[in-house]
Every structure is written in structure tokens, then in C-alpha cells.
């Protein structure tokens, strides 16, 4: 199943061959909070992972006629893995960190997980907005096209062999990043710095994560191209590692790390990421307007 959120927070399943989206019922309850509370979404991630079925409530619509939103709502956490491909660690050490004036932060080259603000999430039909102050300061803002996962079953200290049983599905994620000194959570949490989509593909339709491959181009120039099998810490290992610290909850998002080929984007660019079986994201890049201008 491929699950999308569209228009005014409607829920639909996507047929990628027919290019249609079929409306399905949202399981609301009396007193349910509005969509921004996302209680129904979190419950849905849990229930679908446990085998629940979605009742169809309308005829299929053409995907071209709807506006796709980020296919997650207000996750409690957006977790991201860092330094998870060998060739990316090498490019950071040899090129990106020296060029960005980063000194004394060798830990940036070690595998770890960190948090991004959920308010940085945008959807497939949105745009990437470069913060005007960051642009004015001349700091590079980079694309990191990544495999992302949505958690379906809660757990703390999840064993690696049980990890995939806690995953609801996969999607494409962009981990937009300001290069420079300081904490990742600050450099990666600006509004629009976590594009997600185009929909969540459940494990049965996505296949094995290590058979997926990521390709990212900017204005048609391929910059990142990698097999997910090259991850240093595999998907089950990332889930296990993060859950040693944080209780993973339904709806939580985990980005699995940047492939090699990260680089700067600027106003007017178009960033395009594709993962076979998961779809594609294509977002224009604009600079934030300065208030009053
Ligand atoms: Mn990243």
C-alpha cells in the first residue's frame, strides 16, 4: 500500500501505474483533535502496522488533480542518522568541513543520531526555502537525499532482529543542512528543511530496504547516487540504536543518512530525488523573503 495525505488533509491510497489516488476513511473519534493534532495519524500508523484495513470512500482521482501534503502529520520526533555512508564521511572530512570552516568537531564524522524539529517538514508540492540570513552570511546550504522510515509500533531498546517489525513504511526524505560550526539540530531545523514524500510505501510494496537505491539531481545534474546496501549501519541497526535512547512511537520519522555527493543549492534550483518503488520528490528552491520587502 502507498498512503498519501492530500488537499485538506484527506487520506488516500496511491496506484502508481494508473497515477490515481483513492480516498479512504480516516478513523476519527468523537473529540478527536484537528488534523494538526494528528491523533488520527499516529493511531493509523499503529493500526495499519497491526494489520488494519482502510475502507474506500470514493472514486479514484487523478494524482495530477490533487495537492500532495507531507505523508506524515506532526510526528513526535524526526530522528536522523549521520555519517552512515563511507564515501560521504570521506567527502565531509576532505572537502566539505574544511571549506565550511568547521574545526575541532571530529565527532561529526562518527555515526550517530540527532533530532530535527518536526516543524521543518514540508510535502512534495511545497518548496525549499533558503533562510535569508544564512544566504546573506554566505554559508552553504546542502541537499542530503535520504531513505526515510515511519515507525508503526512503539518500542524502547528494540533488538536489531525485531526492528523491521516496528516499521510502518518507507518514503523519500531530504535532510537540508546549513554547513558550518555548531549543533546539527540548529543547522537542519529551518522551515522546509525536511521535505518528505511523496507517500508512505508499506514494507510489502517497498521490498527490502537494501535493494533500494537513491538518486538525486539538481537541475538535471546527478549528484547523489547510491545503493542503500552501502549503509554502514543498516536500517534495523539505526532503529535499534535510536531506540536504545528514545522510545520510538507510531508516526515517528527516521532519516537514514546522507549518501555521498552532498553539495550546495541556490535560489532557482530544482532538487529532484528518486527512490525506486517509493516514487520521487521534485522541489523548487527559493530564498526567504525579508519581512517588509
Ligand atoms: Mn542527513
Task: Provide a short characterization of the protein structure.
This protein is of the alpha+beta class and 293 residues long. It has 2 domains: 2-65, no CATH class; 78-287, Fumarylacetoacetase-like, C-terminal domain (Fumarylacetoacetate hydrolase, domain 2, Alpha-Beta Complex), CATH 3.90.850.
Structure notes:
With 293 residues, the chain is an alpha+beta fold. The protein has two domains: 64 residues, no CATH class; 210 residues, Alpha-Beta Complex (Fumarylacetoacetate hydrolase, domain 2). 17% of the residues lie in helices and 33% in strands. It contains six helices and 20 strands. Strands 1, 2, 3, 4, 5, 6, 7, 8, 11, 12, 14 and 17 form a twelve-stranded mixed sheet that branches. Strands 9-20-19-15-16 form a five-stranded mixed sheet. It has a three-stranded antiparallel sheet with strand order 13-10-18, with no helix packed on it. The longest helix has 14 residues. The model has no long low-confidence stretch (mean pLDDT 94). Manganese (II) ion binds next to loops.
Oligomer: single chain
Strand content: 25-35%
Q: Which outline best applies?
A: globular
Rg calculated over all Cα atoms: 18 Å
The structural class is: alpha+beta
If classified by CATH, what would the architecture of the largest domain be? Alpha-Beta Complex
Helix-strand string: EEEHEEEHEEEHEEEEHEHEEHEEEE
CATH classification class of the largest domain: Alpha Beta
Round the mean pLDDT to the nearest integer and report it.
Answer: 94
Total of DSSP H or I helical runs spanning 4+ residues: 6
Specify the helix fraction band.
Answer: 10-25%
CATH superfamily of the largest domain, by name, is Fumarylacetoacetase-like, C-terminal domain
- In CATH, the topology of the largest domain is named Fumarylacetoacetate hydrolase, domain 2
Question: Which ligands does the model contain, each kind named once?
Answer: manganese (II) ion
Which spans of ≥5 residues are poorly predicted at pLDDT below 50? Answer: none
Q: For the terminal residues, how far apart are their CA atoms? A: 45 Å
- Tell me how many strands there are: 20
Tally of distinct domains: 2
Amino acid at each position: 500500500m502507498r498512503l498519501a495525505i492530500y488537499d485538506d488533509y484527506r487520506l488516500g491510497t496511491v496506484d502508481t501505474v494508473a497515477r490515481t489516488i483513492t480516498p479512504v476513511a480516516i478513523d476519527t473519534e468523537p473529540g478527536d483533535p484537528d488534523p494538526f493534532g494528528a491523533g488520527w495519524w499516529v493511531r493509523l500508523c499503529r493500526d495499519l502496522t497491526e494489520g488494519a484495513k482502510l475502507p474506500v470512500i470514493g472514486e479514484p482521482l487523478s494524482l495530477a488533480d490533487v495537492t500532495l501534503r507531507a505523508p506524515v502529520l506532526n510526528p513526535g520526533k524526526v530522528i536522523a542518522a549521520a555519517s552512515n555512508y563511507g564515501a560521504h564521511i570521506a567527502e565531509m572530512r576532505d572537502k566539505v568541513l574544511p571549506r565550511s570552516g568547521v574545526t575541532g568537531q571530529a565527532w561529526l564524522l562518527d555515526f550517530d543520531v540527532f533530532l530535527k524539529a518536526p516543524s521543518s517538514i514540508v510535502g512534495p508540492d511545497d518548496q525549499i526555502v533558503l533562510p535569508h540570513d544564512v544566504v546573506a552570511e554566505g554559508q552553504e546550504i546542502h541537499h542530503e537525499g535520504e531513505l526515510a522510515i515511519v515507525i508503526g509500533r512503539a518500542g524502547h531498546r528494540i533488538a536489531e532482529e525485531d526492528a523491521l517489525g516496528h516499521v510502518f513504511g518507507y518514503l523519500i526524505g531530504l535532510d537540508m543542512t546549513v554547513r558550518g560550526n555548531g549543533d546539527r539540530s540548529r543547522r537542519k531545523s529551518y522551515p522546509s528543511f525536511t521535505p518528505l514524500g511523496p507517500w508512505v510505501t508499506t514494507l510489502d510494496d517497498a521490498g527490502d530496504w537494501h535493494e533500494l537505491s537513491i538518486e538525486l539531481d539538481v537541475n538535471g545534474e546527478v549528484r547523489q547516487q547510491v545503493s542503500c546496501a552501502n549503509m554502514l549501519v543498516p536500517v534495523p541497526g539505526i532503529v535499534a540504536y535510536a531506540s536504545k535512547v528514545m522510545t520510538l512511537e507510531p508516526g515517528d520519522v527516521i532519516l537514514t543518512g546522507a549518501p555521498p555527493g552532498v553539495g550546495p543549492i541556490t535560489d532557482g534550483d530544482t532538487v529532484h530525488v528518486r527512490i525506486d518503488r517509493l516514487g520521487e520528490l521534485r522541489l523548487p528552491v527559493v530564498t526567504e523573503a525579508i519581512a517588509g520587502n
